[in-house]
Request: fold
Amino acid sequence: MSRHSIALVSDFFYPNVGGVENHIYQLAQCLMKRKHKVIIITHSYEEKIGLHFLTNNLRVYYLPLYIMYNQASIFALFGSLPPVRWILLEEEITIVHGHSSFSTLAHEAMFHGRILGLHTIFTDHSLFGFADISSIMTNKILEISLTDCSAVICVSHTSKENTVLRAKIQPERVYVIPNAIDPLKFTPVVRTDSLDRIRIIIMSRLVYRKGMDLLAVIIPKICRKHENVDFVIGGDGPKRLLLEETVENHQLLERVEFLGAVAHDKVASVLNRGDIFLNTSLTEAFCIAILEAACCGLQVVSTRVGGVPEVLPDDIVRLSEANVPSLVQALDGVIERIEAKLVPSRQSIYEIVAPLYTWQKVAERTERVYNHALERRPITTQQRIRKILNCGWVCGKVFVVVLVADLLCMKLLDIIQPHHKTKTQVTKRMKEPHEMKAKQQLHRPPLQSYSGGEIGCFGEGLKNRTAKY
Reply:
C-alpha cells in the first residue's frame, strides 16, 4: 500500500464547529492510523495562529489571513503563496486535498500546489444553484479550480450530479464517498424523565437554508394539535429571533426550549433527551444530523431534498416535501405511532444504523482515490493554460494571466526564499510511483472500479510558534 503525504486544506476547521470541520479532523485521524502523513492548513482563529498540534500529533497550520465572510478568507492568491509554498515544501507534501466550494484557501492551495507539480483532490460538501449572482460566481471559480484537478469527491450522488453540472467536468473523475459518524459517541440512552411528554429535537444552524421559516409555522400547529409535545432547539443563527418571537406570540415559552450553540461533544446528550428529530432543510448534500439522530435511536422526520433520501433506509426515516402541510402530516403520523408504541426500540435502530457509515470506511475509500490520482501524471503548464482558456472567453484569459503571475512569483520566491527541499525534489517523489509501475508493469483496475456510487513569508518563525490546542 502506497504511503502518501497529504495536506488537507480548508477555511473551515476547529475551533469553528461544523460538518466540514469534523469531516476534515476525522479523516485526518483515520488516514494517520493508516500510516499516511497528514497535515491541515487553515486560516487563523483569534488566538490560534502558527503551528499547533492536535491529537496524535496532527499538525495544523493556522495562517494569518483576513476573513471575508462566514469564516471564508478573503481572496489573496499571491498573499497566501509564500506560506503555502513553504509548508508544502517543508512537509514534503505530494497530495493537496481541498475541502468546500466556499473555501477560498482550499482553491488557492490547490492552485499553488499544481504549480509545484503536486496532485490535487477536491471534496465538495454542498449543493449550489445556478441562477443567483453568488452561485454563478462560485460555480465559475469552481470550474476553473477543478479543470486540472486530479479527482473530485462528493458526499452523495445528488451532490455529484450538481458538481458535474456546475464545474463542467467529466463524471468519471468524480467519486461518491459519504460522510460518517463515530457510532461509539452516538449511542441510545433510554429516557427516564417526563415519559408522558414527547420531545421533538431540532439541531441545526438557524438560517434560511435550514428551513427555519417553515419551522416557525410548524411549531404552533403541532403544539395546538398535541398537548403532550414539546420542542428543544439547539443551534444559533439569524433566524433565532424569528423563532423566539413566534414562541412568545403563541405563548409557548414553557413548551419550547432554546439551547443556543451546542458543542459537538454535547450533541448526543441533547439528542437522547428527545423522541423525534426534525430536519426542515431546504437543501442538503448529505445531512449528517439525521444520521446522528438515528444512531441515537430517534424517529427521524425530514424534508425530501438533495442527498437526504440516500442517507437512511426508508423504514427509519419519514420523508416529506419541503412545505408546512407535508411536514405537519409526517410529524402527526410519527407522534401517533409513538403514542401507540408501534415504533421500533432505540437499540434496534442503532444496530441498523451504526455499521452503515464509519470514518474508517471513508478513509479507506479516500485512500483509493489518492492511489488512482497518483497514477496520473500532472499535466504540463501548456496543457493547463489550454484547459483554463476553455473556461470562458473573459474568465479564461483573466485566470491565464493570474496563472502566469503565480508562476513568476513562485520563481521569484525560489530565488529570494530558497528552500532546501526544492520543487525538483518534490517532483521527483511524484514520478517514483510511475517509474515503479512501468518497471513492474503492474495491472490495476480502471478508474471507474472505485468510482463514486458504490457507497454503500513564514519561514522558521512559523515552526517555532507552537501551542497545544
Summary: The mean pLDDT is 86. The CA atoms of residues 156 and 310 lie 7 Å apart. The radius of gyration is 24 Å.
